[in-house]
Design a protein that fits this description.
It contains six helices and five strands, in the order H-H-H-E-E-E-H-E-E-H-H. The relative contact order is 0.19. It is of the alpha+beta class and 164 residues long. It has helices at residues 11-15, 24-31, 34-37, 76-97, 135-139, 148-163, and strands spanning 39-42, 46-50, 60-64, 101-105, 122-127.
Length: 164
């Protein structure tokens, strides 16, 4: 039986103005304001960022700097670094929040549900038993137990320890 994922708090993202010819995943790293933009880590070919419109607390993404939506064209080095950072993200989230599971993957293309279809990115969503309840369904409210900036600080500290 299929279970729906209710995420009405993401409506802010869906209805926000999208500037023609701009790509958030290309623009944010150029700003060099990592804390403001929730960028936790910058690697050689990928960066790690907290999702501003998360499905759960700690929802992160590993994003290649290269502007592409074609997974099959990524170079071996990019693929390796993407998976290494995904592994590190899971370690950080395990240390900081102790999730009981993870959802990971990509939505490639509009038909697959990609919110930013022009620039591929890998999602890592921490999950806990019982983390879904009636609130999103009945009141279009998702309880986030911690502010994104607090989450950023905690995860940033853990990330720095793991990179050394």
């Amino acid at each position: 039986m299929m279970k729906p994922l209710w995420a009405p708090w993401r409506m802010e993202f869906i209805t926000s103005e999208k500037k023609e010819g701009c790509c958030v995943f290309c623009d944010l790293p150029k700003e060099k304001e990592d804390k403001k933009n929730l960028i936790l880590y910058r690697g050689e070919s990928v960066f790690v960022i907290l999702n501003k419109f998360p499905y759960n607390l700690g929802h992160m993404m590993v994003v290649p700097y290269e502007h592409t939506n074609q997974f099959q064209t990524l170079k071996k080095e990019q693929l390796l670094e993407m998976m290494q950072e995904t592994q590190r993200v899971m370690g950080v989230l395990t240390e900081v929040y102790r999730p009981e599971g993870f959802n990971t993957g990509m939505n490639l293309g509009q038909a697959a549900g990609a919110g930013i279809k022009e620039h591929l990115h890998f999602h890592i969503v921490p999950r806990w038993n019982g983390d879904t309840n009636f609130m999103p369904v009945l009141s279009e409210t998702k309880g986030m137990p911690e502010h994104l900036q607090t989450c950023f600080e905690k995860c940033s500290e853990s990330y720095r320890r793991k990179v050394k």
